[in-house]
Amino acid sequence: MPLPARLAVLIAAALALLAGCGAQPPEPSPPDAVRELRAGRRFAAALIRKTRGIEDPDSVTPEAALAVVYLERLRLGLGSPFRMAEQAAVDPRLSDTLRTRLAWALLARALDERAYEVAPETLDPLGNGPWSPPRRDGAWHLEQIAQAVERAGDPRAAERGVRMAY
């Protein structure tokens, strides 16, 4: 990836980091980064639409399948969004154009809080114990955890509180 493209990716990563920390990004945002993030969002949405529910797996190119794997890894929180974007930007299995689009798509989805998504169904078994008289589903548990984290002033305190509760 040429130096200006790498610099733009790093600027976007810094903006994403600032957004994730609750800080406001500096104004004005670099127009190139904003444009690339929008294009990344459109690319990810189109790729997911194209590959979801396909009947013929052979109709998906290996590059598209690999890009979907990157997006799914991000969604599940199986690594740092910034590291994944850097890996995608240099992945030799992808074309130059796809590398750049995918890196921006990963950063955009991280900015949009589309990473580390927990499927509520994974918490369904928590509502089966004798300690919870009214049956609670995983969505209820996930909401309680999210509220505890949002209300806490310190992330470590929130983690400890959730661990103690369960």
Distance between the termini: 47 Å
Roughly what is the average pLDDT, rounded to an integer?
81
* Quaternary state of the chains: single chain
Low-confidence stretches: none
Biggest sheet: strands, sense, closure?
A: none
Radius of gyration based on Cα positions: 19 Å
> What is the count of DSSP helices, taking H or I runs of 4+ residues?
7
Order of helices and strands: HHHHHHH
Describe this structure in words.
With 166 residues, the chain is mainly alpha-helical. Helix content is 63%, strand content 0%. The termini are far apart.
In short:
With 166 residues, this protein is mainly alpha-helical. The protein has 7 helices and no strands.
List keywords for this structure.
single chain, 166 residues, mainly alpha
Topology:
Blueprint (H helix, E strand, L loop, with lengths): L2 H18 L10 H21 L10 H15 L4 H10 L5 H16 L26 H14 L3 H11 L1
Helix pairs in contact: 1-2, 1-5, 2-3, 2-5, 3-5, 4-5, 6-7
